[in-house]
Sequence to fold (109 residues):
Amino acid sequence: MLVTFQSTAAPDVVMLRNLAQYLLGLIGKHLDVRGVIAHEELSHVIARLETAISEETHAEAALESLYTVTSAHRYNMDEDRGGLAHRAWPLLDMMREARKQNADIIWGL
Fold:
């Protein structure tokens, strides 16, 4: 099932339900049939999501330092890996634009 995030500040962002649920959980929201991230919340929400991305990046770097990986294998791993930064980018970009324009973000199933 797909979830659509909408704001007057940016184009719609559509993602799978499980990813939307995960990202909303990171920012302290629950995935309901409909929801809103008010423009007053955006600075705090953006900071929480950026912190989660940073923590995942540091954890991945720490794990990589524990293992010796050939460059060919690393290339294949990087192609397959869709880290949080990559998956969250469209929503994070929407949040930043909405904050600039004092706009809310709504979502619906």
About this structure: The chain is about 55% helix and 20% strand.
